[in-house]
């Protein structure tokens, strides 16, 4: 579970969380879960042999969220193929009675950053996926 307070910079002109900011917050939760699983994110994100770019992202807003709202994000992972996985997020506003305010999905593919060809997920990532695969079941 990742907790984050909505900041002014996360909102749009109407004062609600902007969609790209919500996806950024999801990515923060992704990084936090990697660290919590013992993955050295500096090494993970600068690995010259492996990259995991995002190939799809979507988010559905169920309720608005505003500056100062306290959010919790619960994530679950799903390996889709030997070289692809997705992370699903439930975003809840604590100060709104634990109301589910958004759901997001971000899909990644594993590639070799030199030749840009798909390759199997590294072992530490598979271990992380397995750890978080039951989180929202």
Can you characterise this structure?
This protein is α+β, with helices and mostly antiparallel strands. It has one domain: Thiol Ester Dehydrase, Chain A, CATH 3.10.129. 24% of the residues lie in helices and 33% in strands. The chain is built from 3 helices and 5 strands. It has a 5-stranded antiparallel sheet. The longest helix is centred in the first third of the chain and has 18 residues, at 19-36. The protein is elongated. The two termini are 14 Å apart.
Sequence-ordered SSE layout with sheet pairings:
Blueprint: E1 2-5, H1 19-36, H2 41-45, E2 54-61, E3 70-81, E4 84-93, E5 99-109, H3 123-132
Antiparallel strand pairs: 1-3, 2-5, 3-4, 4-5
- Give me the side-by-side strand order of the main sheet: 1-3-4-5-2
Number of helices: 3
* Average residue-wise pLDDT: 92
Would you state the CATH class? Alpha Beta
Q: Judging by the overall fold, what is the CATH architecture? A: Roll
Apparent shape? elongated
Helical content (DSSP H or I, runs of 4+): 10-25%
Largest sheet: 5 strands, antiparallel
> Could you name the CATH topology?
Thiol Ester Dehydrase, Chain A
Strand content: 25-35%
Radius of gyration from CA coordinates: 16 Å
Spatial separation of the terminal alpha carbons: 14 Å
Total domains, how many? 1
Order of helices and strands: EHHEEEEH
Structural class: alpha+beta
CATH superfamily: Hotdog Thioesterase
The tally of strands reads 5
Poorly predicted regions: none
């Amino acid at each position: 579970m990742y907790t984050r307070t909505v900041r002014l910079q996360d909102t749009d002109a109407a004062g609600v969380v902007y969609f790209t900011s919500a996806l950024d917050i999801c990515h923060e939760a992704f990084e936090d879960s990697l660290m919590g699983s013992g993955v050295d994110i500096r090494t993970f994100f600068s690995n010259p042999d492996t990259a995991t770019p995002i190939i799809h992202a979507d988010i559905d807003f169920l309720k608005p969220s505003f500056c100062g709202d306290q959010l919790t994000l619960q994530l679950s992972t799903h390996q889709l193929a030997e070289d692809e996985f997705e992370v699903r997020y439930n975003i809840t506003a604590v100060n709104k009675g634990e109301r589910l305010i958004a759901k997001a999905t971000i899909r990644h593919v594993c590639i070799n950053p030199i030749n840009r060809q798909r390759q199997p997920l590294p072992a530490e990532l598979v271990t992380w996926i397995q750890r978080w695969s039951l989180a929202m079941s």
